[in-house]
Amino acid sequence: VDDTTYTVTLPETLDNEFTPNYQDDGEVRITPVFKELGAVALWCADTKTLYFDYDPQPTQDIVAGGEWQGHTVTAVWKGTAVTSVGWSRPGWLSVSREVETVEFTEGFAAVRPTSCYAWFYSMINLTTINGLANLNTSEVTNMNSMFGNCSSLVEIDVNSFDVSKVTNASTMWRTCSSLTSIYCDKTWNIGTTTDMFLYSHN
User: Fold this and answer.
1) Contact criterion met (CB below 8 Å) for 174 and 199
2) Which of 1, 95, 108, 161 has fewest C-beta within 10 Å?
């Protein structure tokens, strides 16, 4: 391969790099690396599923109306909008009443969110959470209202949750009126847990 320099102009909104792939036929093909994506939450209305994923070096951007793993993406949230919501309700709650399934991919296990405040709040039709063990909570301090008003959720396994840094889990399962079973580590010791099961009668 010669020392030819290839100049690529990027849109101002992207902070990406391009990786050269040297081919056997002597050509150089350029592969974009979209580093700014980080963690993503994707709403796919066709499956009524909210997906959480992470790819450290994605080769294509993920946009509403585009494709992701065979699904049409209806809406997407990226980066700190996923990992650092603080006391702000996450953007995907705009579709909370449409979500029936939540799925965490294996890749999402590399993500370290700091707040899960109201992550699934008022997902009244949510019945299934797949891959919850891929939600690493080791840096999470806030689980307030995390599953609040998930009135169709019958059981949940949070054995994988690391709650060592959680200081607030108040109303975590508020108004989970169908919830009958919670599987969790017996060593759970959380700071503020006021009204954790408020209006959850089962």
Assistant:
1) yes
2) 1
**Cα gap 127→22, rounded to integer Å:** 48
Which pair of structure tokens corresponds to residue 120? 């699934």
Cα dihedral value 138, 153, 62, 107, nearest 10: 40
With helix as H, strand as E and coil as C, how does 123-191 read? CCCCCEEECHHHCCCCCCCECCCCCCCCCCCCEEECCCCCCCCCCECCCCCCCCCCCCEEECCCCCCCC
Report residue 102 as tokens: 């939540």
Fill in the DSSP letter of residue 66: S
SS3 of residue 109 by DSSP: helix
Q: Specify whether the CB–CB gap between 135 and 143 falls below 8 A.
A: no
Q: Can you say whether residue 59 is alpha, beta or left, with left for phi > 0 and alpha for psi between -120 and 50 degrees? A: alpha
Convert the pLDDT of each residue in 103-158 to its tens digit: 999 999 999 999 999 999 999 999 999 999 999 999 999 999 999 999 999 999 99
Both tokens of 105, joined, read 């991919």
89 CB-contact burial (10 Å; exposed 0-12 / middle 13-18 / buried 19+): middle
Taking the C-alpha atoms of residue 15 and residue 90, their distance in angstroms, rounded to an integer, is 24
